[in-house]
């Protein structure tokens, strides 16, 4: 299936997602690059409205005030302590308790675990937004890389995958899985040994875990745990004889550490400074236990067995700059890719020369094979150059920022910022091995009857995946214009406009339409899965971003659950006109479920309310929980229920 990372604010005690302050991870690209009629829909019964500005709930009568208005003079309500509700929810200590009623028919409770085991089969995705030098060949010519908390070994001939991780793990404490045998958080760096037999990977988290594993089978070899406060493993690499693993963390002092693989002990630890470190690589010279680190205004050479770490000396060869990547040759010469588009050659931490082969932007990936430098830059080109003559011998244009390069048996392996992994054969033919969402989060997910998946994310992409062929088979664009939402905003690490980020998609089984909801609050209807860029309807009723899109089982209505606390119901047969607006929730909508006959909706919001609505009248049913004990539900996505 598709691996999608979903972060739900409903799982936190937060009334308004705008109160969250997200601190984006350092990004070297920044650091080193020198109307329908709503009268019927607005009808509400007396209820408590959550005021986002004041942070309190106030009792409001029908048509008295909107959820956006400040509730002056009303009684303050501690929203998560008590509820002033009617019907089944009356006197509930928690909003959903009174709304959970035993159905008239159900199987007998069975506390035993399910008799089904799940095994991860395939993952679409490759992490490229904040990592580099992270795609490799193993000894068998298969591709090793990472996505989410998985190490992936892709058989490029059969298009099958083997994983490090992805198995069932035990919980060592409440809501915390043990990380003794695999990663439990996103992998932020990965590397493969020079002999291509071993892989090492490090994750993020307060106490990041590092694993060494077999690059062919995915079996665990060793485990290290960095000290608390390390935040993430920013870079990692093997010594040329596979005795040691070097790491750099994201602590304020960016500690450099070396671990002995056989014993699992840390034999070296030293601060590297305040500047972010992007890459680490050991010398390929036999018996040469030296490695270099590079980053923001940073280049240092380390000899851990001598407990030495010294900064590089530029001299008169070039001005000091930032470096995104580093590699070595068999003679012990180091090469770094600079923010100034130059390739820097270092001998004994002294800059020997710097030469330019890339037209502009920083050099994002670099490797040395058989005396030639393979470099990839922001100019979208992979260039093979002779470091002695400084001449370009071959150039491959791929059109996107290059993140990773490897070379084996005449084939060139390249990972790009757009989330793609491609292979270029000696004749120059390019084969795409993997595609991915590539910015912010990927939330939207819809399954079609013909075993295709439609996904959307914060990267202005709508992607279609074939589950049988296990490949990307279609792609569209969320929006071509930059627009903000009318109120509020979605927290994201993406730099794109809210109109170009989409966190909900839905598929209509009768018409073949694909509904896409953007973070600007706009819903667009696409003609079909095969024609995603043909927009046949646009709805802009929501004032904030939309988390939920669900077509009714009869395929004649579309429900849109917004962060403006409302659910908008659209009439598919009437050109997606607004049928009604369901208003009763005190917080943003997190789930919507239709009854099998498309007459009733149950929904949950960020205030943990489970409410029921009659779709025909467009009103809340305060006694909906009791009234639906015999109801068959088409889906059950609500966090709360029987």
Q: Mind explaining what this structure looks like?
A:
The longest helix is centred in the first third of the chain and has 4 residues. The chain is built from 2 helices and 48 strands. It is mainly β and 642 residues long. The N terminus is likely disordered. Helix content is 1%, strand content 42%.
Topology:
Layout lengths: L27 H4 L15 E5 L4 E5 L75 E2 L5 E5 L2 E6 L4 E5 L6 E3 L2 E2 L9 E6 L5 E6 L5 E6 L5 E6 L7 E6 L5 E6 L5 E6 L5 E6 L5 E6 L8 E5 L2 E6 L4 E4 L11 E6 L5 E5 L3 E6 L2 E7 L6 E7 L2 E6 L3 E6 L4 E7 L4 E7 L2 E6 L4 E4 L5 E5 L7 E6 L4 E6 L3 E6 L4 E7 L24 E6 L6 E5 L4 E6 L2 E9 L6 E6 L5 E6 L3 E6 L5 E7 L5 E6 L5 E6 L4 E5 L4 E2 L3 H4 L15
Antiparallel strand pairs: 1-2, 3-4, 4-5, 5-6, 7-8, 9-10, 10-11, 11-12, 13-14, 14-15, 15-16, 17-18, 18-19, 19-20, 21-22, 22-23, 23-24, 25-26, 26-27, 27-28, 29-30, 30-31, 31-32, 33-34, 34-35, 35-36, 37-38, 38-39, 39-40, 41-42, 42-43, 43-44, 45-46, 46-47, 47-48
């Amino acid at each position: 299936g598709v691996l999608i990372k979903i972060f739900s604010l409903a799982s936190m005690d937060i009334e308004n997602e705008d109160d969250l302050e997200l601190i984006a991870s350092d990004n070297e690209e920044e650091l080193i690059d020198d109307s329908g009629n709503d009268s019927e829909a607005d009808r509400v019964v007396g209820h408590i409205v959550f005021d986002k500005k004041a942070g309190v709930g106030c009792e409001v009568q029908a048509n008295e005030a909107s959820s956006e208005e400040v509730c002056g003079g009303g009684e303050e309500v501690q929203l998560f302590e008590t509820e002033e509700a009617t019907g089944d929810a009356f006197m509930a200590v928690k909003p959903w308790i009174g709304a959970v009623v035993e159905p008239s028919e159900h199987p007998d409770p069975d506390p035993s675990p399910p008799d089904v085991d799940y095994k991860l089969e395939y993952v679409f995705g490759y992490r490229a937004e904040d990592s580099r030098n992270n795609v490799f060949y193993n000894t068998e010519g298969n591709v090793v890389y990472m996505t989410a908390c998985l190490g992936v070994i892709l058989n490029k001939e059969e298009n099958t995958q083997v994983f490090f991780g992805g198995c069932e793990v035990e919980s060592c404490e409440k809501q915390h899985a043990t990380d003794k045998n695999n990663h439990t958080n996103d992998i932020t760096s990965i590397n493969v040994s020079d002999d291509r037999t071993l892989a090492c990977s490090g994750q993020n988290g307060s106490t990041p875990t590092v694993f060494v594993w077999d690059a062919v089978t995915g079996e665990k070899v060793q485990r290290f745990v960095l000290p608390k406060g390390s935040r993430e493993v920013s870079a990692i690499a093997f010594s040329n004889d596979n005795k040691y693993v070097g790491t750099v963390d994201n602590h304020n002092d960016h500690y450099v550490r070396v671990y002995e693989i056989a014993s699992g002990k840390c034999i070296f630890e030293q601060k590297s400074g305040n500047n972010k470190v992007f890459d680490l690589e050991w010398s390929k010279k036999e018996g040469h236990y030296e490695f270099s680190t590079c980053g923001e205004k940073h280049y240092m050479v380390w000899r851990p067995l001598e407990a030495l770490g010294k900064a590089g000396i530029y001299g008169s060869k070039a001005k000091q700059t930032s470096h995104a990547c580093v590699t070595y040759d068999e003679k012990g010469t180091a090469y770094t890719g600079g923010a100034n588009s130059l390739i820097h050659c270092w001998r004994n931490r002294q800059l020997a020369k710097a030469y330019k082969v890339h037209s502009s932007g920083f050099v994002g990936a670099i490797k040395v094979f058989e005396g030639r430098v393979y470099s990839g830059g922001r100019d979208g080109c992979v260039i093979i150059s002779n470091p002695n003559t400084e001449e370009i011998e071959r150039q491959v244009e791929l059109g996107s920022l290059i993140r990773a390069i490897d070379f084996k048996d005449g084939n060139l392996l390249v990972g790009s910022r757009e989330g793609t992994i491609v292979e270029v054969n000696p004749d120059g033919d390019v084969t795409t091995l993997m595609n991915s969402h590539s910015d912010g989060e990927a939330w939207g997910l819809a399954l079609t009857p013909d075993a295709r998946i439609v996904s959307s994310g914060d990267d202005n992409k709508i992607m279609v995946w074939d589950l049988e062929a296990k490949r990307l088979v279609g792609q569209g664009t969320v929006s071509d214009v930059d627009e903000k939402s009318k109120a509020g905003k979605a927290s994201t690490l993406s730099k794109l406009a809210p109109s170009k980020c989409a966190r909900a998609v839905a598929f209509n089984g009768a018409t073949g339409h694909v509904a896409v909801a953007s973070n600007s609050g706009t819903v667009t209807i696409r003609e079909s899965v095969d024609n995603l860029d043909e927009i046949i309807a646009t709805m802009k009723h929501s004032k904030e971003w939309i988390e939920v899109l669900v077509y009714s089982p009869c395929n004649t209505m579309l429900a849109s659950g917004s962060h403006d606390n409302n659910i908008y119901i659209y009439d598919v047969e009437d050109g997606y006109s607004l049928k009604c607006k369901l208003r009763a929730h005190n917080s943003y909508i997190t789930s919507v479920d239709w009854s099998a006959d498309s007459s009733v909706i149950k929904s949950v919001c960020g205030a943990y309310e489970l409410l029921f609505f009659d779709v025909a009248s467009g009103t809340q049913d305060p006694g909906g929980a009791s009234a639906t004990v015999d109801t068959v539900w088409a889906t059950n996505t609500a966090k709360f229920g029987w």
